[in-house]
Design a protein that fits this description.
Number of helices: 1
Helix content: under 10%
Oligomer: single chain
GO cellular component, one term: extracellular space
Protein name: Prostatic spermine-binding protein
GO molecular function: carbohydrate binding
CATH superfamily: Jacalin-like lectin domain
Organism: Heterocephalus glaber (Naked mole rat)
Keywords: Lectin, Signal
Radius of gyration: 22 Å
C-alpha cells in the first residue's frame, strides 16, 4: 500500500483550480474528461441576448455532455494539434456574458457579448494549460465559471509498461519500462491449511 501511495504521489501532476468567476449561484458542475487527453475543442451555447447558456469540451475525439441552461446557439472553437488554451477572459453580471479563449499559438475565440464586470484567468505557472472547466448555472444561464490549470498528462505508449518474460517466483512478477524493475504481488506464499 505504501508503495502504491508513493508511486501515485510521484506521478501526480501539479494543477490549480481558480475561483469561480461571476456571481456563481445555482447548480455546480465539473466537466470530467481530462483523463481522456488534452482539450481539443470548446463548444459554447450563446443565448439570443448574447449571454452564455452552456458549455461542452472535447477531449481527444469525445465531446463531454453539455453543462448549463437549456437553449442557445452552439458555437465551436477547435484547437489544432499541439495547441493549448493559455488564457481565458470574459465578463459577467447575473450571468456570464462573454468568454474569450486564447491559445498557445495566439489564436483567440470570443463567445457572447461583453457586458458587466470583466475577469481574466491565466495559469499560475509557465508551461501550464487549461485542463478542464467547472462552474455554476441556473435555469437561464451560466452564473459562474472556473478554470483548472496544470500540466497535461503525458500519453503512455503501448510499450511503456511491459511484463518481463521470466517466470514469477513465489508470487512475484517483475515489471519493467519505468526505470528499475520492481516486484508486484505478495512477496511470500500463504501457508496452506489441511
Amino acid at each position: 500500500m505504501l508503495l502504491f501511495l508513493t508511486v501515485a504521489l510521484l506521478f501526480s501532476l501539479p494543477c490549480s483550480a481558480q475561483e469561480i468567476q461571476g456571481p456563481g449561484f445555482g447548480s455546480y458542475f465539473y466537466i470530467k474528461g481530462e483523463e481522456l487527453g488534452e482539450i481539443q475543442g470548446i463548444r459554447v451555447f450563446v443565448g439570443i441576448l448574447g449571454l452564455i447558456k452552456g458549455i461542452q469540451l472535447r477531449f481527444g475525439d469525445h465531446w463531454t455532455p453539455r453543462y448549463g441552461a437549456p437553449g442557445g446557439h452552439a458555437q465551436e472553437f477547435l484547437l489544432q494539434e499541439g495547441e493549448h488554451v493559455t488564457a481565458v477572459d470574459g465578463s459577467s453580471r447575473a450571468c456570464i456574458w462573454h468568454l474569450r479563449w486564447t491559445t498557445s499559438r495566439g489564436r483567440q475565440a470570443s463567445f457572447g457579448s461583453a457586458a458587466g464586470m470583466r475577469f481574466s484567468a491565466h495559469p499560475p505557472s509557465p508551461g501550464q494549460q487549461l485542463l478542464t472547466v467547472n462552474g455554476q448555472h441556473w435555469f437561464f444561464c451560466l452564473s459562474g465559471i472556473g478554470f483548472k490549470w496544470g500540466v497535461a498528462p503525458q500519453k503512455m505508449s503501448s510499450q511503456a509498461l511491459t511484463v518481463a518474460p521470466q517466470e514469477p517466483t513465489a508470487g512475484l512478477r517483475k515489471v519493467s519500462g519505468m526505470g528499475l524493475p520492481f516486484p508486484l504481488g505478495f512477496p511470500f506464499q500463504m501457508p496452506r491449511h489441511a
